[in-house]
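Cross-check.
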Amino acid sequence: MTEREPLEPDPSPQGEHPAPTVLGRRAFLGVAAAAATLAACSGPGAGTDSAAGPSSGSTSPAGGGGTAGTSGTSGTQPGSTASGSATTTGSATASGRPGRPSLLDTAGPDIVHGPRSREEVALTFHGQGPASLTERVLAHCRDAGAAITVFAVGTWIADDPSLGRAIVHGGHDLGNHTWSHQQMPSLDAATARREVARGAAALKKAVGTTGWWFRPSGTPRSTATIRAAALASGYRRCISYDVDPEDYRDPGAALVRSRTRKQVRPGSIVSLHLGHPGTVEALPGILSDLSSSGLRPVTLSTLLRD
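Predicted model, tokenized:
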């Protein structure tokens, strides 16, 4: 989200969530209260499908991933340079991974899901917690040939940059989930900007790019203040989700798996959390269920490609 047309105002004095946007094949446009302070940023997920036209804008920082099992040759994410600028837009990179989706050059509402016309889903993980659990998640994905997207908390990635490099080199996407995982709807504009900017800087230091994707902490949907903060760091779109098994509440692996299975459909963006043993335990079953349903787990870069 850099310079572009004025942000739409919040639809209520409390900054209620703006209407989500459906993502089509060529121009993918994109509720509950904030989650419990202890764990998480999730809330009840899916919004009502609606459509809106794209707005134009300039290029934003890059960083996406591609398919699992391919690794980069450096700390930079596929489709980006060490400075964070895109090498391609809307097409495949030289490595065969998707280029930066053109919707990232547009302003608009939160991206809630991808195209319903392809048998793909994006498993997205809010990134913090013990390294051992992250390593287990990456191992499960490697075994299943699955690609995921991790939204890293800045303090987490700063404490162990090798986790960011392992995520990127495993063929996954790495995005920004703020610096310190605060409840963003309660922050003033200056603090919100710092949270996004420091998270972006932590990603840049760890893997050489600020990434393509931003998801706010403490809320399932952005507000105008959050979107302005994201834009100031180059993120034109905030990423939400339409599937939320509420794994951050630690309901047990069986419930995390069954809730995901019941909610997921083509194009879904699933909200999951690293650092929760029940989520790690549920992941092989979730991947098996997706395979049985003919759904392929891919990165956001793949799901939202042009």
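DSSP finds eight helices and five strands in the chain. The helical segments are 131-144, 154-159, 161-169, 189-207, 224-232, 253-263, 277-292, 300-303. Passed to J.P. for a second look.
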